[in-house]
Structures are given as C-alpha cells and as structure tokens.
Design brief:
By secondary structure, this protein is of the alpha/beta class. Among the domains are: 4-79 and 151-221, Rossmann fold (3-Layer(aba) Sandwich); 225-288, Alpha-Beta Plaits (2-Layer Sandwich), CATH 3.30.70. It has helices spanning 44-51, 73-77, 95-106, 111-119, 135-147, 165-182, 193-197, 217-223, 235-244, 264-276, 291-301, and strands spanning 4-15, 18-24, 27-29, 33-37, 59-64, 67-68, 80-83, 153-157, 185-190, 202-207, 210-216, 226-232, 249-252, 255-258, 281-288. The protein has a six-stranded mixed β-sheet, sandwiched between helices. Strands 1, 2, 3, 5 and 6 form a five-stranded antiparallel β-sheet that branches. Helix 3 (95-106) crosses helix 4, helix 4 (111-119) packs across helix 5 (135-147) and helix 5 (135-147) runs parallel beside helix 6. The radius of gyration is 25 Å and the shape is elongated.
C-alpha cells in the first residue's frame, strides 16, 4: 500500500480551454501538516475540490490512502473531513444541534458530538445559539463538523481567513495538535506563507495551476540563504581581488556582495585581504533573505522543484 495519504498524478482541470490546474503531482505523507500555498487564483481551491470528489478532473488521477478516488469515492471520502471556504451552520441552532444534523447524515456515533466539541474547545459554548458566536468560534465549529466522522485526513481551505489575531492563534494551535494528539493528517490551503510556516512541516507552492516547489520547510529555509555586503573603496577592483581568492563576489550598486555562505572568520579574512591591497573598508553587513522574499520570487518566476 502507498505511503502517501494524498497522491495526485498529472492532475489537471480545464475550463473553456484554460487550465485552472495543470499536471499537478502532490504527495502528502501520513501524519504531516502540509501547507498548500499560492496566491489567490493559483488553483488551490480547484485542486481541493478535485481531491474531495466535488469536481471531476479533466485528466490525471487522485489517490487517497493509496487507493484510486475515481473507483472508490464513497469509501475513501468516509475517511476524510473537510472545511472548504466558509463553514455552513444554522445560526438559530446550538452547536450541538448543528452537529446532530450532520451526524445523522454521515451516521456517526452520537458520542462524537461531545468528543469533537471538546477537541475544538467549544464544550462550554455547546448550548449557545451559533449566531452569537465569534468568527473564530464559528470556524472551530466548522472544524468540529469536519472531525465528526473521525477522519484520518483533514483538508482545510484558508482556515484562518478573516480571523483576528486571537482567532488565528486558536485555529493554529488546534491544527498543530491534530497529528500528534488525534492521528490526523492535515492539508492546509493558504495564500499566507508566514501563517502556514508556523503550522506545517511540508510545503507545496502552486503558481498558475502548476506546482513550482514541493519539499520541507527546512529545505525552503536553506534556499533563503544570507549574503554579506561590504562597502569599500574601489569596489570593482575589490571584487576582482576576492574572486582571485575563490569567492563568489559581485559588485551591486557600489557594494561588494558575497553570495556564498560565509563564516565570521572568513569575513575577517576578506576584510584583511582588502585592507592589505589598500582598499578602505567602510561597512560590513549581513543581509538575510526572508522566506517571504523567497516565496514571492518562486511565485513570480515559477522557480523551484
């Protein structure tokens, strides 16, 4: 059996001659929190709808738990909980009554209502009309409804969208608890790198319907390497000196930029060599490229793996 909870193979969806999703190859392992990142309109929601069997792919395959979704749709989706866009609820009913309506449809044990309300931290608010809930509480109720069938996979589309900082923190901590405490694999769709970085261990970046990066966050961080910038006299000549020492140096806007990862001792050596060759060194600074800058570059250029 496949090790992947979700695997897509050349998954594509075309609308009126235009590809919303093209040749998508996702792989999400058991117990992961997978961040599915991309700007609005990149194809995230279309992908999620295909993963949940809500729309039919134009071509390609979706496998859940190592089994083909097209052939075993009902059986496989019983193991999946999802919250796509905004949660649905009856505002005049309590949380318990809202979950009871869903429980009857999916034929879940009645005990799951109390269990899921406890998981999302709504036990004390269970008998209140939902129309009086904050936006964060409504979002947690939506996650409770997705957990009602005791799923092995939880798919969340923009789960913190529109929430205030307190609500975002609540949802973030809830999602982070899912794999370890409840054995649930989580896929989160978002356009906010900084938010997903605090929850996910693995990331897939989609641009114009195509995956342009898929790896661990650690691998992404390694690409966001730092550079050392030196302001010195006669920078063009100084760059030639440093290249002669085997360093990847270039002159940019009057600054000497060292592109390799350089240790403190190596920086000291560079400064000494420049001074020995009669260059005045005015300033040395480290410039660390942020993940956000790297994310924007990947999205704009389509570069990645």
């Amino acid at each position: 059996m496949s090790q992947w909870v979700i695997e897509t193979k050349a998954l594509s969806k075309r609308y009126k001659g235009r590809f919303a999703v093209s040749d998508l190859n996702l792989r999400i392992g058991k117990g992961e929190i997978y961040g599915f990142l991309g700007p609005n309109g990149a194809g995230k929601t279309t992908t999620i709808r295909m993963l949940l069997g809500l729309i039919k792919p134009s071509s390609g395959k979706v496998e859940l738990f190592g089994r083909p979704l097209a052939k075993e749709r009902i059986a496989l989706l019983r193991k999946v909980g999802a919250l796509v866009e905004s949660p649905s609820y009856y505002g005049h009913l309590t949380a318990v009554d809202n979950l009871e309506a869903i429980r009857k449809i999916i034929d879940a044990p009645k005990s799951r209502i109390d269990e899921t309300l406890h998981i999302v931290g709504l036990t004390k608010e269970a008998r209140r009309a939902v129309k009086g809930y904050s936006l964060g509480m409504k979002q947690r109720l939506g996650i409770a409804s997705a957990l009602l069938g005791n799923p092995e996979l939880l798919v969340l589309d923009e789960p913190t969208n529109g929430l205030d900082p307190s609500g975002i923190l609540e949802i973030r901590e809830l999602i982070k608890s899912m794999p370890k405490q409840h054995g649930v694999t989580v896929m989160i769709s978002s356009h906010l790198l900084g938010e997903v970085e605090q929850m996910a261990s693995t990331v897939g970046i989609i641009r114009q319907g195509k995956i342009v990066f898929q790896d661990t966050f650690e691998s992404l961080r390694k690409q966001a390497r730092s550079t050392v910038a030196i302001r010195a006299s006669e920078p063009s000549e100084a760059v030639q000196t440093l290249r002669g020492l085997g360093l990847d140096a270039e002159c940019h806007e009057g600054l000497i930029v060292l592109n390799d990862a350089v240790s403190d001792s190596a920086v000291g050596t560079v400064v000494r060599k420049l001074v020995e060759r009669n260059h005045d060194v005015y300033r040395v600074e480290e410039r660390r490229k942020s993940l956000e800058e790297l994310f924007l570059r990947i999205v704009e250029e389509g570069g990645g793996r």
